[in-house]
């Protein structure tokens, strides 16, 4: 099917909803094939096939699309969705082939701000969704800094009934590795604890995740503060000591030299001894059927 086909429909005051200035109070919408629409490149909000999606599908089947999607042209053809990802998915599930859209020429910053604002109205957003939404809009506002007289974080806070400090704490969550952020969404790691853990390096976060999964212990805010202070010198032993609240024996193994030397001649060098021990251990591992780590 061709893009921009079918009849035109008029909708009232759509620019007021998205904050787009326009001299006219009416807007021409165009029916666009679903296959010509692409998700927003940085879309942080999940589009789930859940009960609410089923309700939207049924509404569309009964009443049609009450609110057109907002899209912008893509350089490579087709259109990028700024607002309307769930509506597009609902149309697919309802068996429709087209959706009414309003096409706007928008900059990256303008589309980022509109995308976040249109989705932030939803209830029950996950921590990860809020965190990435705030970061995307925060960075867009910073790019437009000369248009605003106040700090971008403070402005974001006012718009969302939060302080600028709270906004920055949310943004810190985007520096968590994905699996740890999932644990925040599942409410297994508290928001404030997660913010502190975000200061760990990626390698340290991976070690932490390994310890969490092994011991089924989730760091509280006090544990997270200790781990944050340890950043730069974090080890698996140190993490387990914090999580389990007790000092663990080192995993390192040492064998007295005299217990090894008796199996080798006096002429054997340390390198030869080490090589032979490793060969014997590898042979033993294979015979016992142990997996290689």
From TrEMBL:
Where does the sequence pass through the membrane?
none
Gene3D superfamilies referenced in this protein's UniProt entry, alphabetically: 1.10.10.2830, 3.90.1530.30
Task: Kindly indicate where the leader peptide sits in this chain.
Answer: none
The record's family statement is: Belongs to the ParB family.
Q: What is the protein named? A: Chromosome partitioning protein ParB
Instruction: List, alphabetically, the SMART domains matched.
Output: ParB (SM00470)
Ranges of residues in domain ParB-like N-terminal: 30-120
Q: Which GO terms describe its cellular component?
A: chromosome
Q: Which GO terms describe its molecular function?
A: DNA binding
A single BP term in Gene Ontology: chromosome segregation
Q: Which UniProt keywords apply?
A: Chromosome partition
């Amino acid at each position: 099917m061709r893009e921009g086909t079918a009849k035109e429909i008029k909708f009232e005051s759509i620019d007021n909803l998205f904050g787009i200035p326009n001299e006219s109070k009416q807007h021409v919408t165009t029916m666009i094939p679903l296959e010509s629409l692409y998700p927003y490149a940085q879309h942080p909000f999940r589009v789930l096939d859940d009960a609410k999606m089923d309700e939207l599908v049924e509404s569309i089947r009964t009443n049609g699309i009450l609110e057109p999607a907002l899209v912008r042209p893509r350089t490579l053809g087709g259109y990028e969705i700024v607002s309307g990802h769930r509506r597009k998915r609902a149309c697919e599930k309802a068996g429709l082939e087209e959706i009414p859209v309003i096409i706007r020429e928008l900059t990256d910053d303008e589309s980022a701000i509109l995308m976040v604002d249109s989705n932030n109205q939803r209830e029950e957003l996950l921590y990860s969704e809020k965190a990435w939404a705030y970061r995307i809009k925060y960075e867009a506002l910073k790019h437009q800094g000369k248009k605003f007289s106040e700090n971008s974080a403070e402005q974001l806070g006012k718009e969302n009934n939060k302080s600028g400090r709270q906004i920055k704490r949310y943004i810190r969550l985007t520096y968590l590795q994905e699996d740890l952020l999932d644990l925040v969404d599942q409410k297994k790691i508290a928001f404030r604890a997660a913010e502190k853990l975000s200061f760990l390096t990626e390698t340290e976060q991976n070690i932490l995740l390994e310890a969490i999964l092994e011991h089924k212990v989730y760091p509280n805010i006090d544990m997270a503060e200790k781990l944050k202070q340890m950043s730069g010198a974090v080890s698996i032993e140190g993490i387990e000591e914090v999580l389990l609240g007790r000092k663990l024996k080192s995993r390192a193994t040492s064998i007295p030299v005299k217990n090894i030397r008796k199996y080798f001649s006096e002429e054997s060098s340390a390198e030869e001894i080490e090589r032979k021990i490793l060969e014997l251990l590898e042979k033993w591992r294979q015979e016992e059927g142990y997996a290689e780590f």
